[in-house]
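To whoever is on call:

I kicked off a structure prediction for a single chain this morning and the downstream step that reads the tokens threw a length-mismatch warning. I double-checked the sequence; it's 283 residues and nothing unusual in it as far as I can see. Pasting both halves so you can look.
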Amino acid sequence: MSDGIVNIGYPELFAAALLMLVAGAVSWKLELGQTRNIIVSSVRAFIQLLAMGFILIYIFRYQTWWLVLLVVMIMLLAATQISVGRVKNQIPGLWLNVFISMFVSSVAISLIVIEGIIHADPWYNARQFIPISGMVIGNTLTAAAVAIDRLFADMDSRSNEMFSMIALGATPKEAAYPSIKAAVGAGMTPVLASLSAAGIVRIPGMMSGQILAGADPIIAAKYQIVVLLMFSAATTIATVMMCFLTYKKRFSPDGYYLDKGIRDPQPARKKFSLFEKKPPKAK
């Protein structure tokens, strides 16, 4: 134990992996078919988090502005790929719109917090910039997939209404606006629920981590408040940008709504799996 921080040994760390046996046992008993996914996800979490820890040791020691921004850019690219992969609807050209939305919201909010609230010196201090950016990016990742799925599902459910609105002279934006409102609301719901539950139902992650590290609980609470408000602002900006950037993909250049029967067919996305079963060979 050093400065209030309990150093978890590697034997204890790997012993903690036994906790995943609970999820594995449930998956096996109920025949959920998730056992392999649980194993792969657990192994990935171990490798990725430990690798990030070793990388951050180097970055904290030899930090430069371009190296810090490079790490954040890699995180944004990975988050965009994961977010797009979670979207159920196959929408061409979606990747760039999601990346732009996440980039603008994450970088803008991170810089505001770092410069205006935490007063990091220098502004690219890796100990502040990378964790804060990572929290913002990770929080907007799920909201992006939820908002986009809700947007296009809602537009499809209102197809007859939208046809009528377009026929009566409405613009694509006017026809899609109710769906945009529903999608932005859906994307904001999780973070608003977290704001409501914080301090009563649960102690959020950052506050818990600082308390475990020996920080004053009031200081930890102040940081957690900033983090939750940061999440709310970043999620709102990201979902609004994504919805307004992508809704036109359901309309033709002439402004007509493209129903399922008249859209360009898109090839089915193939999901990669390390344990993918090959079809049996014909005898």
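Update from on-call: the warning came from a stale cache, not from the record. Cleared it. Sanity check on the structure: Residues 10-62 form one domain.
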